Amino acid sequence: MNSEIRKYWPQYKWSNVFAMIKNMKQHPRRHKEPFRDKLVVITGATAGIGYYTARKYAAMGAHLIMVNRNPQKSERVRREIAEEFGTPAEYVIADLALLADIQRVGQYLLALEKPIDVLIHNAGVHLQSRQETSEGLEVNLVIHYLCITFRRFGLNF
Ligand SMILES: NC(=O)c1ccc[n+]([C@@H]2O[C@H](COP(=O)([O-])OP(=O)(O)OC[C@H]3O[C@@H](n4cnc5c(N)ncnc54)[C@H](OP(=O)(O)O)[C@@H]3O)[C@@H](O)[C@H]2O)c1
Fold it and tell me: What residue ranges do the domains of the chain occupy?
């Protein structure tokens, strides 16, 4: 194991590590209730895990709201989902590395008339070096942690 990783070992709680290993060995549990007309909000649905998760919920009949940063990719996914599954899919464009966008999305979601059944904070990046946003904040911190403060901006469920 490389020394860069080893230096963090003392910070791990072994109970958490064992719980994680136990959890990873379990078979995924399937939701029993139908998803038709349930509202699912997912961030970063234009690629990777988020894209396939969005498709999975759409295949089960859910109404999707995707929070993505790229309009062209978002439109492509929206059209694909509508054609393949016939379920409603909308998107909101936001760069979740920017606090103003996070706040705007929080307010948009708060103003929805329908309650949110599932919220998936998926958008994220894997950076090899420190990078800062135009607001001077570390990118990982904003996208992976501050983004879930949708709630701080008034979204409460
Ligand atoms: N894959 C793994 O092995 C792994 C392991 C541990 C954790 N994760 C976490 O799982 C999540 C998904 O991973 P993945 O492998 O599916 O990643 P991915 O293929 O790179 O997809 C990331 C998604 O997040 C979006 N995104 C990135 N930065 C954004 C921003 N500033 N604002 C809005 N959207 C943004 C991307 O949009 P664009 O299409 O516009 O780029 C894309 O839709 C991430 O949070 C990642 O950290 C993944």
Answer: 33-153
Residue 79 bridge partners (DSSP): none
**How far, in whole angstroms, is CA 118 from its chain's centroid?**
10
Centre of ligand 1 from the C-alpha of residue 88, in Å: 23
In 3D space, the residue among 125, 147, 103 whose CA is nearest the CA of residue 47 turns out to be 125
Looking at the chain, how many residues does it have?
157
Residue 157: pLDDT above 50? no
Whether the predicted model's global pTM rises above the 0.85 cut: yes
> With 60 as the cut, is the pLDDT of residue 154 above it?
no
Instruction: Compute how many other C-beta atoms are within 10 angstroms of the C-beta atom of residue 66.
Output: 27
Q: Identify the residues whose C-beta falls under 6 Å from ligand 1.
A: 44, 46-50, 68-70, 73, 95-97, 122-126, 143
Assign domain 33-153 to its CATH superfamily. NAD(P)-binding Rossmann-like Domain (3.40.50.720)
pLDDT of 156 strictly over 60: no
When pLDDT is averaged across residues 5-13 and rounded to a whole number, the result is 84
